[in-house]
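Deliverable D2.4 — example input (structure tokens):
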């Protein structure tokens, strides 16, 4: 069974998606996106600087567009048995699997980016990568701290990202290092994603998600907050709403996909970070990057 996985924020790079533009389907979708967004995001993706790509209004839509347009241009080659996306990538996965329209998916991603930016501005907050500790140890230490700090991304065994207030993350990093973490590295991010501090963003995005049409995807999707096979539109919506304040259970997602019969993983979008995480969960499974085999 073929599992398609879609990357999240941080996978962007200058020149992303440029090779797709020669494809007629891709060109049409990029132009439609430029119209919806109100500026030529395709120009920034193809030839913008790293700084321009880091702008909130650009980063999330750019990664979404690269992933979704690549999936759409694969045509008959795109035959997923299961899909999943890391954080932002969940929206890409839903559009690729025909649960969301391209236009609705893009509008939700724009709304998500704006809502997250506002939440970041309300309270200074951050995230940190913790390497070399068991999940339970990280969870227990975070729970004991009298500040907002939680396990936010379960990326692979021995790699968790924590998220919370600046003070909470600083205290946690110190305590986790004392507990034996190989590294406790603060990340260069704008805020505490996938933590309770994203509650204002969750409330803002909830209305947009509730007002959008979600159909049953062409195959099961394994969502970040509830990594089990799901095709129920109501459940998909509920999980999307919870995602901003809930943890990204990526390790659990990959383990469940493997248990359910995944035999290979194809990453759709910029970069190959997710393929690396698959190998850290189980080296036995082949991974690859999706590529267009022919121009249309």
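Example output (designed residues):
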């Amino acid at each position: 069974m073929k599992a398609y996985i879609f990357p999240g924020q941080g996978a962007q790079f200058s020149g992303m998606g440029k090779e797709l533009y020669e494809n007629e389907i891709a060109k049409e979708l990029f132009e439609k996106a430029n119209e919806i967004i109100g500026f030529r995001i395709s120009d920034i993706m193809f030839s913008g600087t790293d700084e321009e790509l880091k702008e909130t209004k650009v980063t999330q839509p750019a990664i979404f567009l690269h992933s979704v347009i690549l999936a759409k241009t694969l045509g008959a080659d795109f035959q997923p048995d299961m899909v999943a996306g890391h954080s932002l990538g969940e929206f890409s996965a839903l559009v690729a699997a025909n649960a969301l329209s391209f236009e609705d998916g893009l509008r939700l991603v724009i709304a998500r980016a704006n809502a997250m930016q506002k939440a970041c501005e309300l309270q200074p907050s951050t995230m940190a990568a913790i390497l070399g500790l068991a999940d339970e140890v990280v969870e227990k230490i975070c729970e004991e701290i009298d500040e907002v700090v939680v396990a936010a991304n379960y990326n692979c065994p021995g790699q968790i990202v924590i998220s919370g207030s600046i003070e909470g993350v600083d205290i946690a990093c110190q305590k986790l290092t004392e507990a034996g973490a190989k590294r406790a590295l603060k990340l260069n991010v704008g805020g505490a994603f996938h933590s309770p501090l994203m509650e204002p963003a969750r409330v803002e995005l909830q209305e947009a998600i509730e007002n959008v049409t979600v159909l049953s995807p062409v195959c099961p999707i394994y969502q970040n907050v509830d990594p089990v096979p799901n095709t129920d539109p109501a459940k998909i919506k509920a999980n999307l709403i919870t995602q901003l304040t809930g943890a990204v259970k990526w390790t659990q997602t990959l383990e469940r996909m493997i248990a359910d019969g995944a035999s290979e993983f194809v990453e759709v979008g910029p970069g190959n970070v997710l393929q690396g995480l698959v190998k850290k969960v189980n080296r036995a499974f082949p991974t690859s990057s999706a590529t267009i085999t022919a121009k249309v």
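The longest strand covers residues 149-156.
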